[in-house]
Amino acid sequence: MLRYIRIGLAGCFVLTCSMPILAEMEYFDSERGRVTVETVASDLEHPWAVAFLPDGKGMLVTERPGRLRVIERDGRLSEPLAGVPDVYARGQGGLLDVRLSPDFRQDRLVYLSYAEAGENGKAGTTVGRGRLTDDLNALEGFTVIFRQQPKLSTGIHFGSRLVFDDEGHLFIALGENNQRPTAQDLDKLQGKLVRIYPDGKVPDDNPFVTTQDARPEIWSYGHRNQQGAAINPWTGELWTHEHGPRGGDEINIPKPGLNYGWPLATYGINYGGQPIPEAKGEKAAGTEPPHHVWKRSPAISGMAFYDAQRFPEWQRNLFIGALVDQSLIRLQLNGDKVTHDERLLKDMGARIRDVRLGPDGFLYLLTDSPSGKLLRVGLSAK
Fold it and tell me: What is the pTM of this model?
């Protein structure tokens, strides 16, 4: 690995950016060329998700303790925005995902997922939206559109990624709050992929709308702790991934009404080395096998398909962050099939929480630590 300091354009994700600042450029070897890494912003406290504002206005980034900030074009970090809801900032809980409305240029709506405390002292995942002010200082009129019920978490397995599809639906990928059997219970929202409209209403064609004692929001079930979700740009299908226990991290392409197995089917075991009590094995009748599985868990978080033109060598690849493995996973695809797994940036020694494709064709990563960073990742000639 080569590493040196140079004057660069860190913090600029539009091609016309003209605000150079001192940037540390690092190079890492890979099968497709040298991977370049620049630090865009630092001193973020457990950053969880990033979203790109249009017209070169910067990026929104969430910090798990409950702050939403703007990272400006030159890498400067704003003060926390006003109007963000109170969050349950314990364990894995806090302020989590951020997504812009598909009609953001017209409505300026920003969607947030976060852990919310309940009356019983436990918490669940909640999603709401507010209007970003023109001066980028606040969210106005923040309104809750979805609550995970019942609230069962004591601080872990909240999920939760937000994805809009091309038909105007909002998918919410949820965790099972470490209450394993609830992932199979259709009257609970733990361990589910949820599909609603952007205002929180339930589509009439959801699979369990007419099922007695089932939550109508549910799209699929039997999930553990989903922290990655993205629309495949070549098929329009939603892909999700989830943490297994000790082993068994997996990717799914969830279909309506289907059961993805947890905790009945798993490739993993408990962290203490014992089998999962409810598990029937790696497969179980009536459940769907994972689309792709890691028998040894990298601890995956964040996901982005690469369909930009800037780096042709990465075309039709899927990138996923890894927390325990401390790497950026590059999955080579042939259609939907995963044909190769390469681990990038392992020498960097960073827990990667989020992966997004920027409008400039670079990948943007968030590192999970008390002093986390936003990184801009590209590829140079081999």
Answer: 0.94
